[in-house]
Amino acid sequence: MRIPRSLVPRAGVAFGVVLMAAGLLGGPAHAADGAPAASAPAAAAAVSDANQTVIYGTAGLNRGESWSSPDGSTVLYQQWDGHVVLYKNNVAIWTAVGTYGVGTYLYMQADGNLVAYDAGMRAVWNSRTPYHPGAYLAIQNSGNLVIYSGSTPLWWSNYRPGGDPTDPECRPGRLCP
User: Fold this and answer.
1) How buried is residue 172: exposed, middle or buried, by Cβ count under 10 Å (0-12/13-18/19+)?
2) Which domains does the chain have, with CATH numbers?
3) What's the sign of the alpha-carbon dihedral 140, 43, 49, 57?
């Protein structure tokens, strides 16, 4: 039996999420019950220095889990309601627009793309950074969320690739989709 090419990526991601949910991929993440709490970095993350937590491809979060910066002041939270939100000192500073109510998994893929999926494994938000194998996500004490390829930033939480840099939603101090 031959599997159609269009099903291969979905099946691979779905399998990865099943492994992640079973605790066999990506290591444990922080479980959170309400507002995000500052805690130690997840086992899937490696602290590269005192200023940022690094999340490598194939790591992910389920609803109610989070990753935090080394000092715990910056928290990326896959909330119970599906919303993916970045907090700095318990104040929301960035959100993945389109995830509220539907986001189920947040997955840093091996190709460098950070993607939020719904329960049916349909992408509801992504960083638009595929084709960068080895890229990683950094959660920084300063409150920024950055995807790097080597030392080159590909995407950061206060910038929307391909978007209008004068967009009033993407100014410092405002939530940026």
Assistant:
1) exposed
2) 7-170 (2.90.10.10)
3) negative
Statement: the pTM of the whole predicted model exceeds 0.85:
no
Residue type, 16: G
Token output for 45: 């993350």
Complete DSSP assignment for 108-136: E-TTS-EEEE-TTS-EEEE-S--S-TT-E
Q: How far is it, in rounded angstroms, from Cα 3 to Cα 22?
A: 25
Q: How far apart are the C-alpha atoms of 42 and 46, rounded to whole Å?
A: 8
Q: What is the pLDDT along the chain (177 residues), one digit of tens a residue?
A: 444 444 444 444 444 444 344 443 443 344 444 444 443 334 455 556 899 999 998 999 999 999 999 999 999 999 999 999 999 999 888 899 889 889 899 999 999 999 999 999 999 999 999 999 999 999 999 888 999 999 898 998 874 444 454 554 444 444 444
**Beta-strand runs (E) in the chain:** 30-31, 45-49, 52-56, 59-62, 65-68, 74-78, 84-88, 91-95, 105-108, 114-117, 123-126, 136-140, 145-149, 152-156
CA-closest candidate to residue 125, choices 158, 162, 98: 98
